[in-house]
Structure formats: structure tokens, C-alpha cells
Amino acid sequence: MVRVPEPPLLALRGVCKRYGAVEVLTDVELEIHAGQVVALLGDNGAGKSTLVKVISGVTPAERGVIEWEGRQVHIRRPHDARDLGIATVYQDLALCGNLDVVGNLFLGREIRRYGFLDEMEMERRTQDLLERLTRRVPDLRGPVASLSSGQRQTVAIARSLLGEPRVLLLDEPTAALGFEQTGEILDLIDRLRDRGLGVLIISHNMGDVKALADRAAVLRLGRNNGFFDVNTASQEQIISSVTGATENVPRRPAFRESGW
């Protein structure tokens, strides 16, 4: 019996986005599968951040199809993305530096008991979640501003996981981190993949991409310019696609033929 491949958790087919007279995304294709990390690459202005905003519901696509587990869906608001199981951590992290770790995780979704904040339950859930991810956030009740950059990134990722998403979008998660902290975040993303999440990371760091990602999708001037199996493609091939030294605009992600 021929095994039918599972559909991707999230797929974009021919997605277009325009701001005024400028078409920022043109016929973009992308697939994100469970238990795999996809790196979204491209030069500044390639459309990466706009694509993440489309997926997360910040700015809806004007044309094209978005599929969730093989069925067409509509993402017009961040609420729509969250309901599907899509969480996003932006580069600025959007943390409140004067609040502690617990307060940041539950900001806007506080747990109440008999009309009062249930601080003990929120702290317990925070501790459980962070222990599953990492043990490197020393003080749950100290202000987030006192944490290292890597620890703040961990808190932001932990907050995004409270809703138990199935797809996680990370915008430059290691951009402001040192060598050791970068390693910790890459290990964290690796554990999320092992838990079956589909992860999309925007990155300019080819070292991170080669160390972590399973697949790479390249955007150039708002269009697809290559899909790569990171384990077999050379760094030079991927960089050539990013810079435009090679022009390749496939209509569908090439890795679908290998079961992706």
C-alpha cells in the first residue's frame, strides 16, 4: 500500500499582498510541517516580515489561499491565527520590563479564583512550562528587565506556548544574542521540534540555519526564489538564491515531492 503523505500543518498558495501601488508579496508559496523547522531567508525588503504578518493575521493577504491541515482557512485577524494554533514571537519580544516573568506570561489572560488573581496557580504553570523548556530563568518574580537577552527570548517563547500552538513563527530569535545564548535558544527550538511543533524562523545567520533548519525557503523581491533541503544544499547555493545570483521561482515548494 502506498502511504499518502500527511498534508502540511500550514500551506500558502499564491499569496499576494499590496501596499498602495507596491506589491510586496507576489504568488508566494510556503509549507510548514509538524516536527520540522523551516528557515525563511531573504535580503532586507524581500517580504519576510510581511509574510509573517500575513500568517499571523496582522495584515491579511489580498489574494491566494491559506490551508490548515489541507483545508482552506481565512486569517484576517490575529485572533484567527491563534484559534488555528499559530503563535508568533516578534523580534522586539513585546515584553513589559517592569513586570516579572509570571506577569508577562499571563498579561491579558490572568487566572482568577473567586474574583481574585490566582498568583500561586500562575506561578506554578509558569514554572512547569519553563522547566519543560529550560532551567535558565533564575527568578520568576524579578523584573524581566533584569534578565539577559537570552532569558528574555525564552520568556517570550514560553508566553507564546501557553495556548499550546502547533505552528510557531520566530522573527530573528538569535539576532541580539551572544554565542552561548544563541546556543541555548537553538537548543530550545530543537526541543520544540521534537515535541511536534512546526517552526518558521526568519534568520540572516546561515550558521544558525545550517545547524537547526530542515528546510529553507528564500524570498527575493517579494517572490519565491528557491526551496532547499538544508541537509543537502550547500551554503553557497542558498546564499546565491538570497542575493539573486541564481534566479529560481518554483510554482510549488520543491520538497513536496520528497514527502514534505
UniProtKB/TrEMBL annotation:
The keyword ATP-binding is assigned to this record: yes
Pfam families: ABC_tran
Native source organism of the sequence: Streptomyces vulcanius
Name of the protein: ATP-binding cassette domain-containing protein
SUPFAM superfamilies assigned to the protein according to its UniProt record, in alphabetical order: P-loop containing nucleoside triphosphate hydrolases
Gene Ontology MF terms in the entry: ATP binding
Keywords: ATP-binding, Nucleotide-binding
Record has ATP-binding as a keyword: yes
Every ABC transporter domain range: 10-246
Recorded superkingdom: Bacteria
